[in-house]
Amino acid sequence: xxxxxxxxxxxxxxxxxxxxxxxxxxxxxxxxxxxxxxxxxxxxxxxxxxxxxxxxxxxxxxxxxxxxxxxxxxxxxxxxxxxxxxxxxxxxxxxxxxxxxxxxxxxxxxxxxxxxxxxxxxxxxxxxxxxxxxxxxxxxxxxxxxxxxxxxxxxxxxxxxxxxxxxxxxxxxxxxxxxxxxxxxxxxxxxxxxxxxxxxxxxxxxxxxxxxxxxxxxxxxxxxxxxxxxxxxxxxxxxxxxxxxxxxxxxxxxxxxxxxxxxxxxxxxxxxxxxxxxxxxxxxxxxxxxxxxxxxxxxxxxxxxxxxxxxxxxxxxxxxxxxxxxxxxxxxxxxxxxxxxxxxxxxxxxxxxxxxxxxxxxxxxxxxxxxxxxxxxxxxxxxxxxxxxxxxxxxxxxxxxxxxxxxxxxxxxxxxxxxxxxxxxxxxxxxxxxxxxxxxxxxxxxxxxxxxxxxxxxxxxxxxxxxxxxxxxxxxxxxxxxxxxxxxxxxxxxxxxxxxxxxxxxxxxxxxxxxxxxxxxxxxxxxxxxxxxxxxxxxxxxxxxxxxxxxxxxxxx
Length: 557
Hints:
Strand content: 5-15%
CATH architecture of the domain at 31-175 and 266-321: 3-Layer(aba) Sandwich
Shape: elongated
Helix content: 40-55%
Number of helices: 22
Structural class: alpha/beta
Strand order of the largest sheet: 1-2-5
CATH class of the domain at 31-175 and 266-321: Alpha Beta
CATH topology of the domain at 31-175 and 266-321: Rossmann fold
Mean pLDDT: 91
Low-confidence stretches: 1-26
CATH superfamily of the domain at 31-175 and 266-321: HUPs
């Protein structure tokens, strides 16, 4: 779970470890089975409730999906075992907006800066609940609704049947009434328990935050409680957020239990009670902070059993902690531009207790790991622990288990993405042995679906694959020595050597013809890219369809 609770620290940054799942600890081979065992041991009522949650404070990014995906795998295992499961995800949208995010995401999941939206819609509403703040895009009924719609759309993209729940609606509908009444009735006990975890709890502290009827901001100053009437009296005072202050308006008023909210440390266990939660995963930062207090409040204030917990390590992005405020984020929609949904699901299926780094520059490694994981499921990898993990987890990662798929290596798909010529793409893939004459058209088409994703990756990273192959012979003007060397290199390629051998031969051919090495490479780049530079030429030519390369080196149309 993520939240705006200022008492929480930032997520820890850590590097990747292994990619083979939970082989050392899980007797099932898949961590979700271990969690399901713990849940079943409690003999829960049906439906079993799996929960996650987030405060809609900025971009709905990939990190917010930790709980949705961890919960999804546990929910699917429980469904496989015959349980009815309800997977819910709460938006803590009655929380106040404490500071402006640096970036937002539009309805399609594209990240935009505040300069591209009505930032004033946010800036004028600091201190107000997210559901009371206009959508800065001018589309949804509130900023909170915009954020929740993004998460639901992302869940749909990944095939996760999650039910989005608004905290504001839970309060408005009266679902929280019994929890609020109980907490305020036992305010002394609540103060005593919370005081073990939070230093600013004094004898005047009341665990309820009304919404000011005058200015609409959340206030933390309650002056009286009337349990019979179900109301509190309050004064709208300033709110301190780090080094900044959000001014209160000074209004004195009365609010019902539905016209305010519990502080987050009480609200979280309150959600467990209201929704009947059986399992909730959360990040390592919660394990060190909010979980101990939540568990204590559940048991000793609310008198309920907390759900089965599961602590996951935060993953980092390009070596740095995911952070909306710092702008180090990536959305699900952006990732699905670069990866198949099953590859992204695989990333979340890996052991959640191990720290990992999602390095966008090396997505090819993640895709290669997924491809190997898939082959292990079908018994084609000599790795016992990976095979055990794949045999259990793979059916939950893919939409359909089929052995006839062809997976083009991601970097090879990026090479194919250098040309828009579909026929040439097929020839090149066939030349490398991925297709033959008997490969069904639908299998070829599915395999080539990776090409456009890899092409977008090359463009986004501007790496060695971000070039465009010239299908038609470009204009050129070479001297006779270069032309003779190109003809000789064409003869070598025609003998069916691999890319490494071709790379070496380029150097040897240039030396034999007494050509400057840079001039010879420039000639190759001119022929294939109509440019002065390009990828590692010999290895690239080894990936291309042989007859095409030979014809081009001989400068023939």
